[in-house]
Amino acid sequence: MKKQIIFLMMLFIAVSFLFTEAVYCQTGTAVSKDGVKISYSSYGKGDTALVFIHGWSCDQTAWKRQIPYFDKKYKVITLDLAGHGKSGKQRTIYTMELFGQDVAAVVNKIKASKIILLGHSMAGVVIVETAKIIPDKITALVGIDTMQNFEQEYTPEQVAEVVKPFKTDFKKTADSFIRNMFVKDSNPAFVDSIVHKMSSANPKIAISAMEEMFKTSYIKNPPNIKTPVWCLNADLWNTNAEGNRKYVSEFNVHIMHGVGHFLMLEKPDEFNKQLDEIITEILNKTK
Asked: How far apart are CA 65 and CA 272, in angstroms?
């Protein structure tokens, strides 16, 4: 009898755990403007949704250190842009505008009174595109080590020069390119893990996205968004805050020191604390 009671208790705990996990993380798909299916995950509850978007040649696992921290107070959404992770890969050209449509498709499926978009690296451009598409649904944009200089632009010749070595030998070029995104004190094993993941991306998709990203020019095509913008950037590269305010009137920047481009994974505790302060500031201004 005692063994039966213990067995039933263990079974109850196991079932309860599975149920809790199912509620804790819900996965789904949204259909982008061109019909590509976009995979996303939802965690936590709340009237405010934090929608995290990964950068070039990454996927939604880039935010694994943020989910357990922020899902206690907010609804947390992570997603895979088209061509990445579990999302569809049938696109011919991976433009920033279509990536913006990917995010918009996910936002249109979730229920929240306030939506904050958070984009790392290339996704800084993507969240600006999203804000153009669904301006009335977005409370604020938060760039993560991105938007350093809205006045930086590349000629078609310069874009071709940057991309050429990736077309010749993607893995070798990507390896070198990515290693320059870290500081000298970055953990070598951590660096290797990021390099391996990104350099293993589909070259065709990665090169297309890179070409389209470098074609972006806010000088020729200003953002034209009224959405307030915050950035949490590393000090690896300078951020031209004053110059950026010519294009976005409310541009705010916070700097993390002594950390590389993947600050959310390299120093997650410090990053989460600073990001939490930014989100609190945003929400206090929108009460």
From this structure: 8
The residue behind tokens 């920047």 is 253
pLDDT tens-place string over residues 185-206: 999 999 999 999 999 999 999 9
- Residue 269: how many other CB atoms lie within 10 Å: 9
Summary count for the chain: helices (H), strands (E)? 11, 8
Q: Looking at the chain, how many residues does it have?
A: 287
Instruction: Express the helix, strand and coil content of the chain in percent, nearest 5 each.
Output: 45, 15, 35
Q: Residue 116, SS3?
A: strand
Could you report the per-residue pLDDT of 146-198, keeping only the tens digit for each?
A: 999 999 999 999 999 999 999 999 999 999 999 999 999 999 999 999 999 99
Query: For residues 146, 149, 152 and 158, what is the CA-based torsion angle, rounded to 10 degrees?
Result: -30
